[in-house]
Design a protein that fits this description.
By secondary structure, the protein is an all-alpha fold. The chain contains 38 helices and no strands. About 70% of the residues lie in helices and about 0% in strands.
């Protein structure tokens, strides 16, 4: 084939245009006029050589075989750039749908312009080549990626944006992730308009809603706090959202709170107060932090009184010492900063002029205060801070009581806080006895009633003390001993008031048995389930106190009646038996005392009856000696028969001593022999 044929435009390997037009200005070549102006046109480097004829002839026969073009290009790796570009252009002309040829051509052209300035004509030429390739390669993601990376290098915002949009429209959705990686990397670069980047990110979130945190970080870096807050609020309210960073809803809530409190001027689309209060109700472990965040929000907006209200509300609602300490420390710091700011402002304003002004108004009686007040509230701020610090123990006590309003110890500590303020103490006692439920109380609930009554007594108001006791004995205590203690304390009050008859009357009233309903006797479980007021008549503590009163203030007959009633109720103890017997002996009722001992040993078994037997036998022997020896022997026989071996030694010795002093020696030896058989060696 002659060179003139190629120049003249004859068909040669599928290439029909004149060779002079093969390299267009869009592809990096110079125009014909420019070349003519430069001098004669040299086509020698574009003409096929002898070694090319084999490939050219094959391509004339089968120009639509990709392998032939690839072999041709591989064989001409050392050819000039223009020569290779000419072959590539002929190849993609013949096979416009060949991805392999187009991609190799574009990569080679892309490598060729690497290192050139983006304003070089080669960049524009390559852009046009990419556009021609995408006419048929618009479904190939690798071509789009190469093109987009090339455009990103040129920093053409509009071109990149439009190319990315076209690629997203051309490629299937399963391949969009490859494009979005380039797109997002580009819009996050410096110099990209923020509004453009935001719009692109919003489109991306429709494709990948789970990547909302990336968008939030982008907005945070750009300072768009309003949209940051809105997006955080949206993902917090979305129950299906799963954080890719592994953050919990709790952490996202705290991030939202930090944003809306630290940037109150920028965040305008959200109700900050409602959001933070919702968080306080939902996340109980961060209550203190959320309250301080809400107060900080109002402080940043200049609403200082509203911030104080928030601090006060927080202190009045938290239930843990940790949250209380957090809020109180923030509140104190706020008041100190307000005081410091006021002092600094006063120091700056304080000057010669203010001193002269004070001298002129020295005789003012304050009638023009409303017109001449300079707003100097330094003393007020200082007093407010001192008042806050002084309230700390009371506020802390309130926190502890909110944790457990039935803690008796905390109520007593709270009463002690108001020492010297009887009115507050009375109010605290009243609130305590109304709040504490005896069935849930931690401590002794009856002590509140007792302390309340003693408080009135100390202040000389015995009548109100009696009123308190009257109400205290009607409380449904969970333990019988608590109610008995209240009655005993009431009785001691009457004794301190020298009202001895009243004390006895009170004890008779307390120990009176309530009317019993007809029917079978209650079982042990039913008895324990009855109110303590119905079981009070069997309280040993109350009867013991009553016995002491009768012995001290009453008559012998009334004391005997009380003791007999205790024995009839079968609530006596060995000590009660001994006391009753001693009382009768002191009043010369020896036989009656022995009868009491008899009832005692019949009522108790060893080891509880040991002291009763000892006293009984000693008193009987000392009283009668040998006069009633047979009766004494019967008593000793009953005792040693009832006593276990380990407890019998003392009684055998006393028995033998009785026989030695008042009986027969033979019987004494008999007692010793029996003792040796029964009492163990150890």
């Amino acid at each position: 084939c002659a060179p003139n044929d190629l120049v003249g435009g004859r068909h040669f390997g599928g290439f029909t245009r004149p060779l002079a037009m093969a390299i267009t200005p869009a592809d990096g070549g110079a125009s014909v006029s420019q070349t003519a102006a430069a001098g004669a046109i040299d086509y020698s480097d574009l003409m096929p050589k002898e070694e090319d004829l084999l490939y050219e002839e094959e391509l004339l026969r089968t120009p639509h075989v990709t392998k032939l073009w690839c072999r041709y290009l591989d064989a001409r790796k050392d050819a000039t750039v223009k020569r290779r570009y000419l072959i590539f252009e002929r190849a993609v002309k013949a096979l416009p749908g060949s991805y392999k040829l187009w991609f190799a051509y574009l990569k080679e052209r892309h490598e060729a312009v690497r290192g050139l300035c983006v304003t070089h004509p080669a960049y524009a030429a390559l852009n046009n080549t990419f556009e021609r390739a995408l006419v048929t390669m618009h479904k190939m993601p690798k071509v789009w990626e190469l093109y987009l990376h090339f455009l990103v290098e040129q920093r053409g915002i509009t071109k990149v944006r439009r190319a990315c949009d076209r690629s997203l429209a051309s490629l299937p959705v399963t391949q969009h992730e490859r494009i979005w990686t380039i797109y997002l990397g580009f819009i996050c670069q410096k110099g990209i308009p923020v509004d453009t980047a935001r719009r692109v990110y919003r489109r991306y979130l429709k494709f990948e809603p789970g990547h909302a945190e990336e968008y939030i970080e982008f907005l945070r870096a750009r300072g768009h706090w309003d949209e940051v807050a809105n997006k955080l609020a949206a993902i917090v309210n979305d129950d299906t959202f799963q954080s890719l960073a592994g953050k919990s809803k709790h952490q996202l809530w705290l991030e939202l709170c930090d944003v809306i409190t630290k940037h109150p001027a920028e965040v305008t689309a959200l109700n900050v107060d409602a959001i933070l209060r919702g968080g306080i109700r939902k996340f109980t472990d961060e209550v203190g932090r959320l309250w301080t965040s809400l107060a900080d929000f109002y402080i940043r907006r200049g609403l200082f009184e509203k911030a104080r209200d928030v601090y006060e509300e927080g202190l009045a609602t938290v239930i843990t010492v940790r949250d209380f300490s957090l809020i109180f420390d923030a509140y104190t710091q706020f008041e100190e900063s307000m005081l410091s700011a006021k002092m600094e402002a006063a120091a700056e304003d304080d000057g010669p002029e203010s001193a002269d002004g004070d001298g002129e108004n020295a005789d003012d009686n304050g009638t023009d205060f409303l017109f001449k007040d300079a707003g100097d509230d330094l003393d007020l701020r200082l007093a407010r801070l001192e008042f806050l610090m002084g309230r700390r123990p009371e506020l802390l006590s309130s926190v502890m009581l909110r944790q457990n309003p039935h803690s008796v110890h905390e109520w007593q500590k709270r009463v002690a806080l108001f020492e010297g303020n009887p009115t507050r103490q009375i109010l605290t006692f009243t609130e305590a006895v109304k709040t504490v439920d005896p069935s849930q109380a931690l401590g002794k609930p009856h002590s509140l009633w007792v302390d309340f009554a003693k408080f009135y007594e100390i202040h000389g108001d015995a009548d109100n003390a009696r009123v308190v006791f009257e109400k205290g004995v009607c409380v449904p205590y969970s333990k019988l001993d608590d109610l008995a203690t209240v009655w005993c304390e009431w009785g001691e009050l009457e004794l301190r008031q020298k009202n001895f008859a009243g004390a006895l009357t009170l004890m008779r009233r307390a120990t009176a048995e309530p009317p019993r309903e007809h029917g079978p006797r209650p079982t042990a479980a039913e008895w324990e389930a009855m109110p303590v007021q119905h079981r009070l008549f069997k309280s040993l503590k109350l009867w013991t106190f009553y016995c002491d009163l009768e012995e001290s203030l009453g008559s012998l007959e009334s004391a005997r009646t009380v003791y007999n009633r205790i024995l009839d109720l079968r609530i006596a103890t060995p000590q009660i038996i001994l006391n009753f017997a001693l009382l009768l002996q002191e009043n010369k009722f020896f036989e009656d005392s022995f009868q009491v001992y008899e009832r005692g040993v019949n009522m108790f078994k060893f080891p509880h009856s040991r002291e009763i037997w000892q006293a009984y036998l000693q008193q009987f022997v000392a009283r009668f000696g040998a006069k009633k020896l047979e009766r004494a022997r019967d008593l000793f026989e009953q005792c040693v028969a009832a006593a276990p071996p380990k407890e019998a030694k003392l009684f055998y010795l006393e028995y033998a001593k009785l026989e030695e002093e008042h009986g027969l020696g033979r019987r004494a030896m008999d007692v010793y022999e029996r003792a040796c058989r029964k009492v163990p060696l150890d």
